């Protein structure tokens, strides 16, 4: 695969844990932070305006939303609503961009941020809708409802995902439970044990089905809280005696030549770290029968995340060391590899 020099779009003042792209608004949303520890590293969600300038991607900061003592570890986006995983909770955020007229924006429901005051005051409420202006654009963010989504002794929400019509939100974490919530009320509609141990990833599929993967080596397909089937990769994949693999990520993607077709993709990684690590694997599955279509090795660096382009044409893989690779979804053939950072692949997924 071709190695190229990465373009640095933006350097956040905190460790980055989650990224989302809003193609309709041309926004990149970056989140992270130092957590509750008093290290001086802030926690926040940054909203960046993406533009093509002379054929190159550019990013400028529109707004910085302070999340106080909570670092955002995972994000999901629907319209102008963000679901942010923060420790044991899921926080809904709503953002809105306005075009300024002169020195003022079009009519809004709030005033500028006042001096910092004690938590719980009216000024604190204003702070959650703080404003940042850049090049005539004003963006406001407000905190909506928050709920606890994980109840293990050391709780952590690890993944959050909206369904296809954006009426439901599924969360998973270290306690192995899937919880499904109505949007935007966050009224709980499902709560069931899906895995023994941590849930690594989940994705909504056709007919309301939900696919989950966890540390118990299982990838399960659910209809509400009823188990439909489990995926069987190693029985159909490469034979590696004595090497246990677990599912790390799962995503549905459109089939480009089939408007109503969906294909499921999973990543399998070695359960144990070895000095000479075996390869990770990328697998495509039939989205209806859940039978494997093809499997390809995808390098020896441990895969940490999987993304599918909106068209379903490309897959993006990120590793724990920070490198990124692009694969053709149909053939699972690698076409691009960068060893620097994930920003260089954003253009393919806009």
How helical, in percent, are the residues?
under 10%
Number of strands: 26
Q: What overall geometry do the principal axes of the alpha carbons give? A: globular
Q: Note the run of SSEs as H and E.
A: EEEEEEEEHEEEEEEEEEEEEEEEEEEH
- Helix/strand-derived category reads mainly beta
| Major β-sheet annotation | 6 strands, antiparallel
Distance between the termini: 22 Å
- Strand proportion, as a percent range, falls in over 45%
Q: What's the total helix number? A: 2
Low-confidence stretches: 107-134, 340-350
Average pLDDT reading? 85
Radius of gyration: 21 Å
GO molecular function, one term: guanyl-nucleotide exchange factor activity
Family: Belongs to the WD repeat SEC12 family.
Main location: endoplasmic reticulum
Membrane topology: Single-pass membrane protein
């Amino acid at each position: 695969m071709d190695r190229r020099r990465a373009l640095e779009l933006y350097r956040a003042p905190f460790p980055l844990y989650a990224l989302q792209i809003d193609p309709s608004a041309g926004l990149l949303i970056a989140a992270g932070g130092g957590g509750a520890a008093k290290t001086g590293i802030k926690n926040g969600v940054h909203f960046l305006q993406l533009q093509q300038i002379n054929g190159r991607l550019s990013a400028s900061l529109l707004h910085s939303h302070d999340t106080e003592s909570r670092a955002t570890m995972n994000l999901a986006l629907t319209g102008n609503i963000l679901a942010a995983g923060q420790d044991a909770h899921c926080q809904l955020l709503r953002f809105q961009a306005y075009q300024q007229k002169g020195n003022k924006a079009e009519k809004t429901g709030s005033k500028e941020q006042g001096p910092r005051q004690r938590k719980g005051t009216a000024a604190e409420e204003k702070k959650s809708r703080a404003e940042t202006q850049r090049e005539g654009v004003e963006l406001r963010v407000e905190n909506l409802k928050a709920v606890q989504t994980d109840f293990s002794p050391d709780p952590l929400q690890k993944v959050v995902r909206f369904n296809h019509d954006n009426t439901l939100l599924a969360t998973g974490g270290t306690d192995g439970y899937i919880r499904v919530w109505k949007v935007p009320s966050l009224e709980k509609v499902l709560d069931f044990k899906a895995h023994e141990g941590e849930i690594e990833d989940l994705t909504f599929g056709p007919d309301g089905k939900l696919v989950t993967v966890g540390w118990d080596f299982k990838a399960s397909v659910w209809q509400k809280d009823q188990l439909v089937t489990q995926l069987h990769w190693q029985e159909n994949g490469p034979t590696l005696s004595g090497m246990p693999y677990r599912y790390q990520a799962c995503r549905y993607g459109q089939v480009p030549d089939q408007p109503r077709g969906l294909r499921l993709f999973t990543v399998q990684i070695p359960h144990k770290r070895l000095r000479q690590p075996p390869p990770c694997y990328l697998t495509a599955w039939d989205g209806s029968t859940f039978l494997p279509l093809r499997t390809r090795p995808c390098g020896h660096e441990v895969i940490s995340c999987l993304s599918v382009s909106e068209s379903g044409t490309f897959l993006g893989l990120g590793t724990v060391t920070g490198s990124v690779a692009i694969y053709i979804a149909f053939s699972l053939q690698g076409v691009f590899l960068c060893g620097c950072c994930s920003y260089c692949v954003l253009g393919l997924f806009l």
